[in-house]
Design brief:
The complex is a heterodimer of chains A (482) and B (419).
Chain A (H helix, E strand, L loop, with lengths): L5 E6 L3 H10 L6 E4 L16 E2 L10 H20 L3 E2 L3 E5 L5 H14 L5 E4 H7 L9 E5 L3 E3 L1 H14 L3 E3 L4 E7 L2 E6 L2 E10 L5 H8 L6 E11 L10 E4 L9 E4 L5 E4 L3 E2 L10 H14 L8 E12 L5 E6 L2 E5 L5 H19 L23 H10 L6 E3 L4 E2 H9 L5 H8 L12 H12 L18 E2 L9
Parallel strand pairs in A: 1-2, 1-12, 2-9, 5-14, 12-20
Antiparallel strand pairs in A: 3-8, 4-8, 5-7, 6-7, 10-11, 11-12, 13-16, 13-17, 13-18, 15-16, 19-20, 21-22
Chain B lengths: L1 E8 L3 H12 L5 E4 L15 E3 L8 E2 H14 L4 E2 L3 E5 L4 E6 L3 E12 L3 E3 L2 H4 L9 E3 H9 L3 E2 L3 E5 L3 H12 L3 E7 L8 H8 L6 E3 L1 E7 L6 E6 L12 E4 L2 E4 L3 E3 L2 H6 L23 E3 L10 H21 L7 E6 L3 E5 L2 E3 L6 E8 L3 E10 L2 E11 L5 E6 L11 E7 L1
Parallel strand pairs in B: 1-2, 1-8, 2-5, 8-20, 10-18, 12-13, 12-18, 13-14, 21-28
Antiparallel strand pairs in B: 3-4, 6-7, 7-8, 9-19, 15-16, 16-17, 21-23, 22-24, 24-27, 25-26, 25-28
Helix pairs in contact in B: 1-2, 1-8, 4-5, 5-6
The chains are: A alpha+beta (482), B alpha/beta (419).
Amino acid sequence: MGTFDYDVIIIGGGVTGCAIARELSRYALDICLLEGEEDVCSGTSKANSAIVHAGFDAAPGSMKAQMNVAGSRLMPDLARELDVPFRQNGSMVLCLSPDDRPALEALYRRGLTNGVEGLSLLTGEEARALEPHLTGAVEGALLAPSGGIVCPFELTAALAENARANGAEVRCLEPVEALERRGEGWAVTTGRGALTSRWVVNAAGLSAGRIHGMACPDHLEITPRRGEYLLLDKSAGSHVTRTIFQLPGRYGKGVLVTPTVHGNLLAGPTAEDIADGADTAATAAGLALVRERAALGVADIPFGAVITSFAGNRAHSSRGDFLLAETAPGFFDAAGIESPGLSAAPAIGRYAAERIASALGAASRPDFDPIRRAIPRPAQLPDRERAALIREDPRYGDIVCRCEQVSEGEILEAIHRGARSVDGVKRRVRAGMGRCQGGFCTPRVLEILARELGISPDEVCKNRPGSNLLTGTMGEADHENH
Amino acid sequence: MRTTDIVIIGGGPAGLAAALAAREAGVSDLLILERGNELGGILNQCIHSGFGLHTFREELTGPEYAARYMDRVLAENIPFRLGAMAVRVTADRRVTYISREEGLETVQARAVVLAMGCRERPRGALSIPGSRPAGIYTAGAAQRLMNIDGYRVGREAVILGSGDIGLIMARRLTLEGARVKLVAELMPYSGGLKRNIVQCLDDFGIPLKLSHTVVDIHGRDRVEAVTVAAVDGQRRPIPGTEERVPCDTLLLSVGLLPENELTREAGAAMCAATGGPVVSDRLETDLPGIFACGNVLHVHDLVDYVSQEAALAGESAAAFVRSGGGETGRRVRVAAGNGVRYTVPQFIGVDRMAEAAVVRFRVTDVFRDVCVRLSLDGRELTRRKKRALAPGEMEQMTVTRSDLAEARADSVLTVELEA
């Protein structure tokens, strides 16, 4: 055992990798999570629907169905332990044509088979009574009270924090370049050197096919499937209260309209297979399609209140299901984790951790602490508590981001917990997430990051190295031009 | 709970002028809440000249203009708090604010002046497709980074939108050694002041491409290029006109939005056309004792008019403190007629109006050789010839008390254009 640096190396700091790291940290194991980008939650996990699916969608018996239903059952407790925003707002699948009624009923039966609780079929009128903005085209709906919404950024960061608090190491900016069998374990070469481990977990998201190929003789095809979204201001956040899906039907695959756990309204995604997983550009056609499709089921969406649009790529596997298995000795694939991957993450974490810990014969750690406290959110506290918090630490009284009322204290805490970039701060505490999209707070966030990280302001990046916000300081020559 | 006669939310040009006017009108118990670390608001980053031609008959920089008001506020010992962000205003005029020093404080005011200013419309509001790399700034954010913090934001820039801040920043970037490749404007006319187009673009040979927009943004880490295309009469990009323009920076100057979250939460009636609250000729919202002025009321192009308007709000707030208020009597609605996008105020309380009231407005399009006509229930009161009108330039007409002497309770005063 002493010949390996770690017992388990997890490749990928998305929600899947972080959930596996957190669940593995229940055991007496040396764990290291490697993330290629500057922060966890930098790929698929940062740009998705932020939905906890009830679990009626996936084919019965599939890993997707199993993990989704189990994951959505684990989510409320996990969110409580990790102090992460989660709300069981319920979801609805709309049927927009009488012809699609049988498909809706099939979905209902599939949900029952998958073990989803509380499902019911509604008429169009019943659906509109619950959600007054549904269109007249709605013929019927499947109601799933166990559907929920969660903050994927905070969930992922919280899983990583909790794993770290329980002894796991999290290393960013370490993309895996090579992987080879070394004795009874693996040698992992990253951009920064070589590490050895008895087990390796492939949770590399869009790169999972490449990592799989380094360890296994067979080919795993992962296709980036782009999804584009529109995010609306909080003024539109109560346009619907449940997550509103559309039944795939005569209008093709529908898009969802949902409140987010922070009170915005989200519409999307499109689904388009693309060649380059790093390409998360939004397109005019895609965004137009989101508007058009969303409006089929939900009327009067105030698209004038859009504050940003974005795209994310899902890791679509040609195998059609999550791949969760030891596919080479000591190599565990958690690959092809597309939707409902976020919902499934708590269950995937457990599933993988139990198998790996058992193979390694690892004992539970008696001192495992499942609790992680969120960064204080003074704007959500009652006045008296907010006042007390600021008295205790005045930095919580210095508002940096006006739109989301984020204080300097919160930003400092985000940096303390691992944010290294403007986006890292934004994902942890929402500075720049609001209606002005960072117009006011970016200069101050930049200044705080430079100060706290002990770097020059022009070294501060939006996210990855190379995404520097500034090109120099005045009074000095511009580095490149002179 | 602490009480104060007048709380002024915002210590920019509007808040300062309102406070001074209220003090001149005899109210001594004032409090200015400023969220920034100094008074003066956005003027502090506007280091170019061109301010104060109307008010002081000389050309000042933004900080100089602000200093004229700040000096008087200091001389008058008007209390202010810095780093103090108002987070709640209630219809019964309780103002809650957050600051490092005081934590969370609530003040019961007898009158409130809203002077929070505006914010810039972000990229997302336009749904510009493309990637989301570093190097995309709103013009005001870039202005702050350069003029307050002393940083360089980019080497080669494209500017989308020809609002005044965008035009000013085109010149500013050029003077700092960056290359501004072009300014693209979606509309067939610029939303900025003519003098800024001449002094900031023409003088530096920067092309202004009207009826053009940015249809794509390229680059993963930092902007590498943007695609600019011509648009048709419906503002839709015309296929085949796309041009890829290499650059590392995209500045957005695509509109300003009055920052009225507090106003809305307080329950004030809002005007869709201005994005600000509905106000009377005394600049009082429909919540008695709550007044609004400056860019939170409607976006201005000249600070001089902000100061004038704010002085009226300050006087009105002082009058409210002295003798109470709320609108009583005949309430004439001011309507934006043909060619007029909005008016401020939206109504005039005829029975307690001053000798005259200024009606400010913006037009919907570019017009040449037209008349601005003011009429009461169809009966013409005044008309004024105009050589040229543009949406980027705020206009004003004056209506006198005698003009409205005959008004009924439901009369309508219409501002409109006639050929």
